[in-house]
Amino acid sequence: MVSPDEKLSHLHTLVARLIADQEAERRRVARDLHDTVGQQVAGISLELSALRRRLAAQDPAALDASVKTLQHLTMTLADSVGRLTHDLNPDGLEHLGLMTALTRHCDEFQLQSGVEVTFELQEDPTPIAFEVALCLLRAAQESLRNVATHAGARRAHVTLVHDSGRRTLTLTIADDGKGFDTARVRESSPGLGLVIIENRLRPLNGTLQIESTAERGTTVRICIPTPAR
User: Fold this and answer.
1) N or C: which end of the chain has fewer CB within 10 A?
2) SS3 for 197?
3) Tens place of pLDDT per residue across the chain (229 aa)
4) Pseudo-torsion of CA 87, 95, 115, 123, nearest 10°?
5) What gap in Å lies between CA 80 and CA 69, rounded to an integer?
6) Local structure of 167: helix, strand or coil
7) Cα-Cα-Cα-Cα dihedral sign, residues 48, 54, 60, 61
8) Assigned CATH topology for domain 94-225
9) Which residues contact 49 (CB under 8 A, 6 or more apart)?
């Protein structure tokens, strides 16, 4: 029988973990805002300074070019804000399902990064609990973000397998990038994205496995048990 002190200790652990997860997510959002929105706003500011100089010089051709540049920068900024908002609150996941959300994200990622991405589904696992679907979508987003930022890959392959016999869902993200030393990274300073994925998996009894070889790419494998239908 679990004592009241043990229950209280477990509750404190859960609260601490929740706070840590929230702080990690905030740092990720801050990083994304700095790397995308911040830089694009800075670009608009620089172009406005150039526009002011061209107004003083009364150069119609240069003014027209500046206005067109500002329009382009503003549209790019709006797209970036829209993507960040979608990542923070993926409405399509709840209404359209995990398969559609993963397919859309893979398509969007390919357009934005230039990395060729394919998505393969083996046995439709619907229905999936929302918290499981959200965990898998976030894991795919973070893994592909790492592919774009660190891997130097040309191609990535995303696979979702539902093993009804073993009652598991397995998401695999494999790339053909430069790879890395997994043991060294885990011992020195595991990336924020890796920590977030592991923290999301823990309450779902999920597991994370990473295989990587220099110049032969990296494979991230997330496995979550599913209840019997």
Assistant:
1) N
2) helix
3) 657 667 667 656 655 666 666 666 667 676 776 677 767 777 777 777 777 777 767 777 777 777 788 777 777 777 677 666 656 656 566 667 888 888 888 988 888 888 999 999 887 666 788 888 888 988 998 889 888 888 888 999 999 998 877 888 999 999 988 887 666 655 555 555 677 788 888 889 999 998 888 778 899 999 999 875 5
4) 140
5) 17
6) coil
7) negative
8) Heat Shock Protein 90 (3.30.565)
9) none
DSSP 97-160: -HHHHHHHHHHHHHHHH--EEEEEEES---S--HHHHHHHHHHHHHHHHHIIIII--SEEEEEE
Q: Is the pTM of this model over 0.70?
A: no
Residues 6+ away with beta carbon under 8 Å from 80: 36, 37, 40
Amino acid in position 8: L
Q: What are phi and psi of 163, to 5 degrees?
A: -95, 95
